[in-house]
Amino acid sequence: MTEHEHDHEDAYVVGVDYGTLSGRALVVRVSDGAELGSAVHPYRHAVLERCLPSDLTGGAEVALEPDWALQVPQDYREVLQVAVPAAVEAAGVDPSRVIGIATDFTACTMVPTLHDGTPLNEVDGYADRPHAYVKLWKHHAAQAQADRINALAAQRGETWLARYGGLLSSEWELAKGLQLLEEDPDVYARTERWVEAADWIVWELCGTYVRNACSAGYKGVLQDGAYPSADFLAALNPAFADYVETKVEQPIGQLGDRAGSLSARAAAWTGLPEGIAVAVGNVDAHVSAPAAQAVDHGQMVAIMGTSTCHVMSAGVLREVPGMCGVVDGGIVAGSWGYEAGQSGVGDIFGWFVEHGVPPYIHAEAAAAGRSVHEHLTALAAQQEVGEHGLVALDWHSGNRSVLVDHELSGLVVGQTLATRPEDVYRALIEATAFGTRTIIEAFTSSGVPVEELVVAGGLSKNHLLMQVYADVTRLPLSVVGSEQGPALGSALHAAVAAGAYADIRAAAKAMGSVQRGVFVPDEESALAYDALFAEYTALHDHFGRGGNDVMHRLRTVRRDAVRRRRTRKDAS
Ligand SMILES: Nc1ncnc2c1ncn2[C@@H]1O[C@H](COP(=O)(O)OP(=O)(O)O)[C@@H](O)[C@H]1O
Ligand SMILES: O=C(CO)[C@H](O)[C@H](O)COP(=O)(O)O
C-alpha cells in the first residue's frame, strides 16, 4: 500500500447498483474492498408494461402498446433515500468516514427531462403521457425505427456502423429518441435533455450533468468524438436533424472521474457528508469487470441476471458481427472495451416459473422448502445431456447479439406428451448457453479471442446452469468474489473518484476479487452439447436470418389484434 492509499485505511465508499427491479447499496472499505453492509430497495412501480400507474396519472387509465417497458424516476430517488442510509447502518460505520459515492445503472435507459433535469412525467400536464416516462433498457417498441436507422446507415456507408457490428439495437438511444419524436412530437419538443438514467442519477446527486463515456459510446453512438451527423439524422426525419445538438450533447466524463460533489439535498437524502466525491455514472455491466479483476485482454465477463451482458477489454479494434459495440476506454482507459449481450436470460426462466409451471411443481417445491427455480433445477440436474429431447431458442425478449432483432421470439422444438416442466426449464437454460457460445464464437472468429469466462450476477448461484455454460462453451468459468458485483464495481469507481487510487486498474487490484476455474468443462458433456449446438445453430439461422419470417409476421398479427380489441373497447 502506498502512503497515499494508507490515508484511506479507515475510509469507506458507497456503490449503488440500479437494476431492473430494485436498487442495491453497498458500503465498502477503501483499503481492501471488504463489504461491510448492504441494503436493497425495490422500485415502487417496478416495470410498467401494460399501463401507466393510476397513482401518478390522477386515476386516468392509460394503456401501453405491446413491447413497451417504462419506469418512474421518483422510484430511483427513493433508493438513495432508503437503501443508502440502511446500508450505512447495516455496515455500522460512521457516515463521516464515507469519502465517495458512485452509481451504475441499467442501460440504455432514457429519461426525458427539462433543462434542469426535471423528468417530464413530473411536469404539469404530462403525467398521463407514456412518452414522458423513462424508457427502460428492455423497451422493445422502437424496432421499426432501428430498422430504418440501420438501413440508412448501411446505404450511406456511415463509418460508425461497424463499431456496432453492423446493426444498432432498438434498445439504444437513437431508436428510442426517434420513436419519441415520431409518436409524440409534443413530448419530444418539450424534452430539453434526453438523458441516460446512469447520468440522471448522478445529476440528482451532485447537481452537475456529465455524460459518462461508457453509455455515450455504447448506447449514444459517440465514436471518435462525434455523434451521427445532422445530415444523417435529417435523412431519417427532417425534424430529427438537431437531435444531437438540442437533446444529447453534453460534456463527457471518463469512468472513475469525479462528476461533482454531493449536494446538500442529496446529503440529506442519503445521510452521507455533503461535498464528498460523486463519480461519473456507469453501466451495470461495464462496472462489474474491475470488480472481478477482469481488466486484461481476453477475459470476458458475463453479467448474468435478468439479461446477460458480455464485456471484454482488448488491445485491438475489430468488427465483430452483431456485437453491441466497441468503445475506446469503454471499460477501462487504454483498452478497447467490447460489449455483447442477451436481452433475456433469467427473465426467460422467471417467465417460465411464473406462467408455465403447473400447481404440482409449486406444491413439491414448497414441500422441499425451495423455490420453484431451485426445484426445477434439482430435477433437471438428474438428466443426461439431451435426455429431454428438446432444443430451444432463447429469444423471448428478442435477440441483442448477434442477430440484433427484437421482433424475434422464443421457440421450443421437440415437445411431446412426455415432456415435463423440468425438461423445458433445462432446455431454456441450455438455449441461453448456446446464445453465449454464439457470441463467443463471433468474437473469436473476428480476431478478438475469448480465453476466460468470468461470471457475475445472480445466476452464478445456479450450479447446474454454470456447469452447462462451462460444457457448452468449453471454457473454465471463474466467478466474481462478490455477490454484489456491480455495486462493488461502483464502489471501486467511487474510491478512484475520491482520489484513493490512481486509476481503475489499481482499485481493481486492491478492491476486486475473483475465484478462478470454479466450473471446468466435462469433455463427454461438451461433445454431447456440440451436437445440440449444431441443431440450435440451424434453428437460429433459419428463424433469425430470413429462412422463415414467421416470428416477425406474428408480431404484426399481435399488434394489429391488440389495436382492434382496444378500438372495440373504446367504442363500446
Ligand atoms: N435459482 C435460479 N436459477 C436461475 N434463474 C433464477 C434463479 N432464481 C432467480 N432466477 C432469475 O434470476 C433473475 C434475477 O437475477 P439478478 O442477478 O438477481 O437480477 P438483475 O439482473 O436484475 O440484477 C430473474 O430473472 C429470475 O427469474
Ligand atoms: O444492456 C445492459 C447493459 O448494457 C443490461 O442488459 C441492462 O442494463 C439490464 O441489466 P440487468 O439484466 O442486470 O438488469
From TrEMBL:
PANTHER family membership: FGGY CARBOHYDRATE KINASE DOMAIN-CONTAINING PROTEIN, RIBULOKINASE
GO process terms (BP): L-arabinose catabolic process to D-xylulose 5-phosphate
SUPFAM superfamilies found in the cross-reference section: Actin-like ATPase domain (SSF53067)
Pfam families linked to this entry: FGGY_C (PF02782)
All residue ranges annotated as the Carbohydrate kinase FGGY C-terminal domain in the record: 301-498
Protein name per the record: Ribulokinase
Pathway of action: Carbohydrate degradation; L-arabinose degradation via L-ribulose; D-xylulose 5-phosphate from L-arabinose (bacterial route): step 2/3
Catalytic activity, EC: 2.7.1.16
GO cellular component: cytoplasm
HAMAP family noted in UniProt: Ribulokinase
Keywords assigned: Arabinose catabolism, ATP-binding, Carbohydrate metabolism, Kinase, Nucleotide-binding, Transferase
GO MF terms held by the record: ATP binding; D-ribulokinase activity; ribulokinase activity
Catalytic class of the enzyme: transferase
Family designation: Belongs to the ribulokinase family.
Catalytic activity: L-ribulose + ATP = L-ribulose 5-phosphate + ADP + H(+); D-ribulose + ATP = D-ribulose 5-phosphate + ADP + H(+)
